[in-house]
Each structure stands twice: as C-alpha cells, then as structure tokens.
Amino acid sequence: MLPFLLLASRAEDAAAEDEYAAYLRYGGLEERELLRIRLEAGPLPPLDLSQFSGVIVGGSPFTSSDPPEHKSPVQNRVERELSTLLDQLVDRDFPFLGACYGVGTLGTHQGAVIDRTYGEQLGAVEVELTEAGLQDPVLQGMPPTFTALTGHKEACTELPPHAVLLARSESCPVHMFRIRTNLYATQFHPELDADGLATRIDIYRHAGYFPPESAEELMAAARRFTVTEPMTVLKNFVARYAR
C-alpha cells in the first residue's frame, strides 16, 4: 500500500506525538503507512503525489482567519505552502482529509467565509449529518447524530456554492464539508478520544481556547466522555483511498 501523508503543525512534541499515535491507531495504520511531515519544523519539501494514497492535515494552534500581520512568520509560511499544495490537490481531486485546521485551510482556499463567529470550546458536541452526509461513502456506517470532540476558535460561517455540507451542530453550522468528490474537511476531530482531549487541554491551557484556571476541571470532564463514532470517518477515508 502507498502511504498516506500526515501534514502536522503542532510545535509541542507531546501534542505532535499524541496526534500521530491517534491517526495510526484509529486509521488502522502502521508507521510505514503514514508518513508525517511537521510543517512547523521546516519548509514543506517537494512532493510527488503519485507516491501517496491521500493527504491528511491534522489540527493546529494556528488560526487561519487572523490577519497576516498577526500571524508568526512560521504560520504565514505554512499557510502559503498548504495553499500551493491545495492548488494541486483540488485540481486533481486528490484524496484529502483536513481535521479542524482543515476547515480553515481548505475552506479559505475554496472561498469559504472563515471567522470566529462559531468557535466552540474544548469538549463534546452533538453533530448531525445532512442528507448528503448520510449518503457520503466516507460517512458510511455513521448514525444520523453522534458525539464528537472539538475545540476551535474559528469555523466556517458560509460555504462556497460548490461545496457540499455533510455535517453540522447546533452551535456550529459547518462541521464537515466536501469539495469535488474526494476532498473533505471536518471541524470535529476524527482522531481524538477522551484521553487525547485531556492531553491537549493540558498542553494548550495558555493558548487562548479557555481560561487557564479552568484547565484541571476541563481535563476531568474530558475523561468522562465516551466518543467512538467520529473515528469511523478516519477509518472509512483510509479504507476508501488506500492503494
């Protein structure tokens, strides 16, 4: 099998390693089947897409909708590189799954309105599939509503006309969408379980997602969640596009 490519951008080693392990575990992948590039560590090297089954973009502390002058040089570089890569991916309708940061990157690239209107705190949300979502192969086997873990400062306020809305929640109108046939973005995390959420709360307690003094309470609450359905998205994506 050709490997999948995980493009990560978490500078904290503990968060980066926990994320990579989660994609391996819930994607049913071996390390040789999931090549990781940490974009925050250096420029994206030239890629031959014919050598990969698909591209996955993990979550990020970056906020796409911030003005360029408020972003670090690293974030601006990463976003330029992802935009250039998305030019190729969209043109080829190449398998792509962006988790959380994927909404900001793919959405921005495709003309969606991304802003801070519908941010959600770290925790569990009830996600509802649309009619299109119920028919989509990457969501095959998912119940009409399910619990997912999330935590994001920004979200998609308005999709472009050519995008297909696949899932939403009461507090966030766009939780998953598709571009063309094979490019997906989710606002919820298909790789994240309760322990992983607690790890991220601990690591990002000073990143502006929540008041730092509430971290311990949020970590305790996170460990009470039982979340299993979102991982089906990752499993289905791998099964559909592995080649």
Q: Mind sketching the topology for me?
A:
Elements: E1 4-8, H1 13-27, E2 34-38, E3 55-57, H2 73-92, E4 96-99, H3 101-109, E5 113-115, E6 120-129, H4 131-135, E7 145-152, E8 155-158, E9 164-169, E10 176-179, E11 183-186, H5 194-203, H6 215-222, H7 231-241
Parallel strand pairs: 1-2, 1-3, 3-4, 4-11
Antiparallel strand pairs: 5-8, 6-7, 6-9, 9-10, 10-11
What is the percent of helical residues? 25-40%
Uncertain runs with pLDDT below 50, 5 residues or more?
none
Structural class: alpha/beta
Q: Provide the gyration radius in Å.
A: 16 Å
Quaternary = single chain
> How many individual β-strands?
11
Global geometry: globular
Organism: Arthrobacter liuii
InterPro entries: ChyE-like, Class_I_gatase-like, GATASE
Domain Glutamine amidotransferase: 50-192
Pfam families: GATase
Structural overview:
- It contains 7 helices and 11 strands.
- Helix 1 links the parallel strand 1 and strand 2.
- The chain has a 9-stranded mixed beta sheet, with helices on both faces. The chain has a two-stranded antiparallel sheet with strand order 5-8.
- The chain has one domain: Rossmann fold, CATH 3.40.50.
